Amino acid sequence: MEELGIPELNSKQVERVCAISEENARKYVLSQIAPKNITTLNICAEVEGTKPVKLSIDIDMVLLPSSKDCDAQKIADEAVKYAFNSAEEYLRKLACNSQT
């Protein structure tokens, strides 16, 4: 992720980045696969540091065998990208707010 010029994050902002990332990853997955076809969906977003911020997102997803036409890895990879984009958008808003 590029340098966004954000201030050092406090614990509430770190929690918010993680929550936004997890929510949006879940939203993406569920927009691609019906919940009834998912046996396991664990999403974990973690932030290391407050400046610079290092965000990692892990998705553990297991589909029912009847969902063999779905590429779980591809969906998980796309969900991670979607989550990173939403986190970046939040961080950009923080950067804009800190400059005013």
CATH class: Alpha Beta
Proportion of β residues?
A: 15-25%
**Tally of alpha and pi helices:** 2
Radius of gyration: 15 Å
* Class derived from helix and strand content: alpha+beta
Summarize the helix and strand pattern as letters. Answer: HEEH
Could you state the oligomeric state of the chains shown?
single chain
Instruction: Name the poorly predicted regions.
Output: none
What form results from the Cα inertia axes?
A: elongated
Distance between the termini: 23 Å
Number of domains: 1
What average pLDDT do the residues reach?
88
The profile of the biggest β sheet is: 2 strands, antiparallel
CATH homology group: MTH677-like
Instruction: Based on the coordinates given, report the CATH architecture.
Output: 2-Layer Sandwich
Number of strands: 2
- CATH topology group: GMP Synthetase, Chain A, domain 3
